[in-house]
Design goal:
Layout: H1 5-19, H2 26-38, E1 42-47, E2 55-60, H3 62-74, E3 90-94, E4 100-108, E5 111-120, H4 130-148, H5 154-167, E6 173-180, E7 187-193, E8 196-202, H6 207-211, H7 221-227, E9 235-240, E10 245-251, H8 261-329, H9 337-362, E11 363-365, E12 368-370, E13 376-378, E14 384-385
Antiparallel strand pairs: 1-2, 1-5, 3-4, 4-5, 6-7, 6-10, 7-8, 9-10, 11-14, 12-13
Length: 389
C-alpha cells in the first residue's frame, strides 16, 4: 500500500473516528471517513444489529448507488439473514469502464451484521485506492462493533437503553439515563431527536446518593442538569428494577409523567431477559447441530483418508494379483480343473476387494452397526454414497 507520509496522519485520524463511534453513528462515521480518504462516486452502508435500529448511510449520485445495489444483489450479498452460503469478508471488482466497485462485509463473531459498498474512478498511485480504504474502514468498523457488543460494561446497558427508548417513543420520553445499581461502571445517557439516538457516558452519582433513590421518585433540578447537562428536560423520574438497573426518564412536558411508566419499563426488561434466554437456547441448539454436522464431516473425512490409503497400499498389489490370475485363466484348458477352480476363487475375491474399496470411496455419510465385543463397523450398503457421475 503506497501512502505518502503527508497522508498517514489523515488516514489514522479518520480510522480513529470510526474506532471511537457509538451506536447510532457508526454508519455515518464510517461513510464520512471513506469519503474523505478516497472521494468515491457513491457509498452505501447498512448496519443491522438485532435489537437496535438499523443504521444506514448513502452518498453520491443515484445512478452510481443503483450500480452498487445491483452489484450487491448480483453476488448474493443482499441475503445475509438467509445464511444460504458463507459470505466473503471483502470483494473488489473492476468494471469494463475502469470503475472499481468494492464491498466489505461487517461481521460480529463471524455473523454478518452489515456491509459497506462504494464505487470510484481509478485512483492515482499517490493516494489510497478504493479497495485499500474500504478494507481499512470495514475492518475498523467490525472491530468497533465487536467491542461495543461485548457482554459487559457500558456497551451492554447502552444497548438495553436504546431498546427501551425506542419502545417508549409514544410516551413522551425524550431522554433516558441507565446504569447498574451497584459497582463503579459509568452510566449511559441517551437522547432521541429526529429518529436519531445519541449517547454519551457520564459519571455515576455518588453511591450514597444512588442508594437513597426511591422507585418512582421525581428527579430534582440539580440532578436533572447533571444527567442531561446540554438538554432542556422539563421533568424526570427514577425507576429501579429487580434486574439491578437504575433508569432516569426525562420528559418534554410534566403532564406526560405517568406513574405506571415504571411498571411498563420493568415488563420490557423482563421480556428482554426472556428473549435473551430464548436466544441462548436457540444458540445452544444451533451449536449442538453444528457440532453433530462437524462430527459427521470428520468421520466421513476419516473414512476418505483411510480409503485413499487402502487404495494406495492394497489396490496396487491387488491389481498385480488380479491381472496375473486372469492371465493364467486364459490358459485354463491346459491347467488341471482343481487349479482353475482355485484361480477363479482368487479372481472373485480380488474383484470383491476392488468393489469394496470403490464403495468406501463413495461414502459421504457413514452408518455403523455392531460388530463384536462392543466394536462398531461401517455398514457399506446402508451408508449414504455419492451418486455415480
Amino acid at each position: 500500500m503506497k501512502v505518502p507520509d503527508s497522508r498517514i496522519n489523515l488516514v489514522i485520524m479518520h480510522l480513529r473516528s470510526v474506532g471511537k463511534g457509538r451506536f447510532g453513528e457508526l454508519a455515518s462515521n464510517c461513510g464520512d471517513a471513506l469519503s474523505s480518504l478516497t472521494h468515491p462516486l457513491a457509498i452505501l452502508i447498512t448496519i443491522k444489529i438485532p435489537g437496535l435500529d438499523n443504521e444506514n448511510f448513502a452518498s453520491g449520485a443515484e445512478r452510481y448507488q443503483n450500480v452498487l445495489v445491483k452489484t450487491i444483489a448480483e453476488y448474493g450479498l443482499d441475503n445475509q439473514e438467509k445464511g444460504q452460503s458463507p459470505l466473503p469478508n471483502f470483494l473488489s471488482i473492476t468494471a469494463d469502464d475502469g470503475k472499481t466497485v468494492s464491498i466489505g462485509i461487517i461481521k460480529h463473531l463471524g455473523n454478518p451484521v452489515g456491509q459497506i459498498a462504494a464505487i470510484a474512478e481509478e485512483t492515482s498511485e499517490e493516494s489510497l485506492s478504493l479497495p485499500e480504504a474500504l478494507w481499512l474502514c470495514a475492518s475498523q468498523l467490525s472491530v468497533r462493533i465487536n467491542t461495543l457488543l461485548s457482554t459487559s460494561g457500558s456497551a451492554a446497558i447502552e444497548i438495553l437503553g436504546r431498546q427501551l427508548l425506542s419502545a417508549l417513543k409514544s410516551d413522551g420520553i425524550r431522554t433516558l439515563t441507565i446504569g447498574f445499581a451497584s459497582g463503579g461502571d459509568a452510566w449511559v445517557s441517551l437522547y432521541q431527536y429526529r429518529n436519531r439516538t445519541t449517547a454519551r457516558e457520564i459519571e455515576r452519582l455518588p453511591q450514597e446518593q444512588v442508594a437513597s433513590i426511591n422507585d418512582g421518585e421525581i428527579i430534582g433540578e440539580n440532578t436533572l442538569k447533571y444527567l442531561w447537562a446540554d438538554i432542556d428536560v422539563a421533568a424526570g423520574i427514577w425507576v429501579s428494577t429487580k434486574a439491578g438497573y437504575y433508569l432516569a426518564l426525562g420528559f418534554d412536558d410534566r403532564k406526560h409523567i405517568n406513574p405506571r411508566i415504571g411498571d411498563r419499563i420493568k415488563e420490557l426488561i423482563e421480556l428482554k431477559a426472556k428473549d435473551d434466554s430464548a436466544h441462548l437456547i436457540k444458540s445452544f441448539e444451533k451449536l449442538k447441530n453444528d457440532f453433530q454436522k462437524l462430527v459427521k464431516s470428520e468421520r466421513a473425512a476419516a473414512i476418505t483418508e483411510t480409503t485413499v490409503t487402502i487404495n494406495h497400499e492394497i489396490n496396487n498389489p491387488l491389481t498385480a494379483i488380479l491381472g496375473n490370475t486372469q492371465l493364467m485363466l486364459m490358459s485354463r484348458d491346459k491347467l488341471p480343473s482343481d487349479v482353475v477352480a482355485k484361480l477363479e476363487t482368487i479372481e472373485r475375491s480380488a474383484i470383491k476387494i476392488r468393489e469394496t474399496t470403490a464403495k468406501l470411496m463413495s461414502i459421504i455419510e457413514p452408518v455403523t452397526s455392531a460388530y463384536a465385543s462392543g466394536l462398531e463397523m461401517i455398514d457399506i450398503e446402508k451408508s449414504k454414497k455419492k451418486k455415480p457421475q
